[in-house]
Model the fold of this input.
Amino acid sequence: MEKTIHSAKIISGLIITGVILLSVYLKGYTSEKAEPKKPAAAAAAQPTGVPVDGQVLRSESLNEEMIVSGTLMAFQEVSITSELSRKVVAVHAKEGKFVTAGTLLFKLDDADLLAELEQLKQQEKLVLLNERRLKDLIDREAAIQQDYDQAFTNLKVLQAKIEQLKVTISKTSIRAPFSGNLGIVNVYTGAFVTPGSPLALLTDNSRLKIDFAIPEKHANTLKTGDQVDYNVESNDKVYKGRIVAHEAGLDQKTKTLLMRAVTDNKGSELLPGQSARLTLRLSNTGNAILVPNQALIPSSKGYSVYVANAGKAGFKAIEVGERNAFSVHVTKGLAPGDTVITSNMLRLTPGSAIQLVSIK
Done:
């Protein structure tokens, strides 16, 4: 009987021990299941912000440029014409050829003018003899001063007619006023020309002029002697020229200033009349601040940007200068080291909490 009671006590002790162990196990299991909830609760307790991208600003070298259109023109160009109504007796001009200044291009008929010149020269001999005879008589006080004055005047008038006729005769030889290339010849031997009749076009293409207009706000930026770069449609080369002059005032209709540059044309690669695309350097800034275009917020008062400041979005008004396809030059309102927000600006208000996803 005592043995049976002892066995029952042992069994009861084992049962109690098992219950205790089971209870401890279940408590540990329950704790492990509850632990994953702790990070979620902690995350919920942390403040969240609008996800944005940012760009840290730094000083950069900036060349402000402006693109304008211009037209190439010959450095010198003239339509060769006649000053007389005469027949063409010789054509020395060769189409498309280079000629030097003074080269005879056309010869007009001058036979009647030469005959008239010879007649006047014979008359000059007679008048000159009469003037000298009267001069001797005046010296011997054998003639009156009035007769000599008349003879002297007649001599001078005749000599003036001779000089005038020589000038007319010289106009029958039409020469190149400067060195250049001849264009198409419009008349031939035997043709009768009148004053103003176009005989040929002479062009000096050794250098070219480029006329272009700039806006009023840059009228005092570009100066005589400044270099310009330009290109044309016929090739991909970049040519250089220099500003040589500008108009004295603005065009009243367009409010632009007409400027002229000159460029070399060695090899005659370029032709007058071609369009030119000029790149004008306006300024060179060594510590410029450039902001991406997508960061700008336009308004009726100008432009503003959002900047990241201690996890919040700060709102800053800025002043801008020149811009290109990717960025804008900020002249006032930002400093190197500022982080400009470049995305999700529509979801922001001044002071909004932000979360920087990426920084450039």
Remarks:
- DSSP finds four helices and 19 strands in the chain.
- Residues 127 and 155 are 6 Å apart (CA to CA).
- The helical segments are 2-34, 37-45, 111-139, 145-170.
- The longest helix spans residues 2-34.
